[in-house]
Amino acid sequence: MRAGERPSGPETSRPVVFFDGECGLCHRGVRFLAARDARARLLFAPLDGELARALRPPSLRDTGPEGTLVLREPDGRTSVRAEAVLRALAATGGPWAAAGSIARAGSLVALLDVAYRAVARRRDRWFGRSAECPLPDDPSLRERLLR
């Protein structure tokens, strides 16, 4: 994509989960979401990829050591941390759709963000880190991974 060009295609018509491509916990989270997303609505892209640079708002360009999870929805709405997790779960449908109602409870999301940040600070120690974002083994998930 060239500078100034507006992104189009599947990455703007479906929710995109931006994740830390080197984080073991994030890889597990992506696999968890994909396994529950029977309609394959969610797309996934690393935070340091070209698509993330094109679609993330300037305020989220530097996510810091937490490597904040970012969800960008087709209408341009962007959510981060716990709200992004809840909204991504809601997008998978089924019993997880209830997570969307939790995402609308601002005070609860703020509390969940405290837990999110606590885990994020320890995630490398607990789940490891890879040198680069590996391609998933699952071909259906690989098709949903954008760069």
Describe this structure in words.
With about 150 residues, the protein is an alpha+beta fold. The chain has helices at about 10-15, 25-35, 50-55, 80-90, 100-105, 105-125, 140-145, and strands at about 15-20, 45, 70, 80. Strands 2-1-3-4 form a four-stranded mixed β-sheet. The radius of gyration is 15 Å and the shape is globular. The termini are close together.
Q: What value does the Rg take, in angstroms?
A: 15 Å
Q: What percent of residues are in strands?
A: 5-15%
Overall domain count: 1
Please work out how many helical segments DSSP would assign.
7
**Largest beta-sheet details:** 4 strands, mixed
Task: Return the average pLDDT rounded to an integer.
Answer: 81
The percent range for helix content is 40-55%
Distance between the termini: 11 Å
Task: Please give the structural blueprint.
Layout (H helix, E strand, L loop, with lengths): L9 H4 L2 E4 L4 H13 L6 E4 L3 H6 L14 E3 L5 E3 H11 L7 H5 L2 H22 L11 H6 L3
Parallel strand pairs: 1-2
Antiparallel strand pairs: 1-3, 3-4
Keyword list:
single chain; 147 residues; alpha+beta; four-stranded mixed sheet; 7 helices; globular
Short description:
This protein is of the alpha+beta class and 147 residues long.
